[in-house]
Specification:
This protein is mostly helical. It is built from 5 helices and no strands.
Length: about 130
């Protein structure tokens, strides 16, 4: 029990002290984790777990879209990507389609990996 509390405190502190870039990376990691869980649930025919985890990924994508800064041209590109991923998630949830979830997982990994590169480049410029 004490270990769980310590882990929760550590996790909360990690979030509270993270930079916006680190928080974005955490969200990508979370989306990937929940997408993997959804795929596993579909494989196990656990419809409720699949739904719940797909909704978690959808919520993260909605958060990404809501926080886009449209004064930058690149925000339009990200909006298109997030919209596509969200629509694929809705489709995957309706059909409990593992193939669509694997496609989404690939997009999420690409977005995360590119975000890591951007983070590295921005720290090298300092």
């Amino acid at each position: 029990m004490a270990y769980r509390n310590a882990a929760q405190i550590y996790g909360q502190n990690k979030i509270n002290t993270a930079t916006p870039a680190e928080l974005t990376l955490m969200l990508y990691e979370g989306a990937i984790k929940f997408c993997n869980k959804a795929i596993e649930a579909v494989q196990n025919q656990d419809i409720e777990a699949a739904h719940n985890n797909i909704v978690k990924v959808e919520n993260i994508i909605v958060e990404f879209q809501a926080t886009l800064d449209h004064k930058y041209e690149v925000a339009k590109d990200f909006d298109v990507i997030y919209d596509y991923v969200y629509r694929r998630l809705v489709e995957a949830n309706m059909k409990k389609d593992e193939e669509v979830l694997n496609e989404v997982l690939g997009h999420l990994r690409d977005l995360r990996d590119n975000w890591k590169i951007i983070m590295q480049q921005s720290t090298q410029k300092r």
